[in-house]
Amino acid sequence: MSDNGHGGTLGGRVALVTGAGSGIGRACARALAADGAEVHVVDLDGAAAERVAAEVGGRAHVVDLADPGAVGALPAQVDVLVNNAGFQHVAPLPEFPLDTFTRMQQVMVTAPFQLVRNALPHMYRRGWGRIVHVSSVHGLRASPFKAGYVTAKHALEGLSKVVALEGAARGVTSNCVNPGYVDTPLVRAQIADQAAAHGIEESEVVADVLLRRAALKELIAPERVAELVRWLCGDHAAHVTGVSLPMDGGWTAA
Ligand code: NAD
């Protein structure tokens, strides 16, 4: 394995990143590949997955993570697993569609569980593994109208801690990263919806609605989240396990 000078060498390691066709997942695929990992790029959007896989020299897998059969067929020989894929739906509880709620749990909780279960035997055999879950401040705090998302992210936090406890003696770490609002298509869609709903400028939505609870009134670049994910995957982070690391501009400090 080559040393890249900042302790984050991933040469010889195989990574699998879900939702790697866009936003934070794509940034993670790029960061892990830059550190030498071979990357499995998993996404529902086939064209996006192919593009990112070609860019990072990895392999694309076009999969709907709500389909347990398709998830079960993904590669299990992975050393680094980044459970990133997710989506948002905003609605008051009495109107929150049951099928959307269920799909959110499938994509953001059940698929991560399945992928962890698939990968652990290989990680245990090698005595080394890194599992990172892209949670959210909404894994630690609630907001109204986001029942499906907040429920799923809180569940992911629980899963991560159990993996940390079971994996510790086998060289496997499991952690969550908890971003505030990141500048990705997922958030851009929310900004446009809110601006239309309230009849205000998109800049006002960012400052007064989305970042109301953050001390730092800026959207986060996806590359910054990916940098934290990459850091957690280094050998230096062997003792960092079972934690949740907010990158939220001070939101959870208040
Ligand atoms: P994004 O919409 O840019 O990317 C999400 C990717 O996941 C897309 O490429 C999409 O095709 C894929 N995906 C969605 N459903 C899928 C499914 N069923 N099967 C396979 N792939 C699927 O979003 P993003 O902002 O990069 O979000 C990535 C993760 O980060 C999500 O889990 C999200 O909850 C979390 N997050 C985002 C923010 C933010 O502000 N953007 C903040 C905190 C946490």
UniProtKB/TrEMBL annotation:
The family classification in the record reads: Belongs to the short-chain dehydrogenases/reductases (SDR) family.
Q: Which PROSITE patterns match?
A: ADH_SHORT
Entry's Gene Ontology molecular function annotations: oxidoreductase activity
Q: Which domain of life is it from?
A: Bacteria
What's the name of the protein? Answer: SDR family oxidoreductase
Q: Which GO terms describe its biological process?
A: monocarboxylic acid metabolic process
**InterPro entries from the xrefs?**
NAD(P)-bd_dom_sf, Sc_DH/Rdtase_CS, SDR, SDR_fam
State the species of origin: Saccharopolyspora hirsuta
Q: Which Pfam families match?
A: adh_short_C2
Keywords, in A-Z order: Oxidoreductase
Spell out the PANTHER family in the cross-references: 3-OXOACYL-(ACYL-CARRIER-PROTEIN) REDUCTASE (PTHR42879), 3-OXOACYL-[ACYL-CARRIER-PROTEIN] REDUCTASE FABG (PTHR42879:SF2)
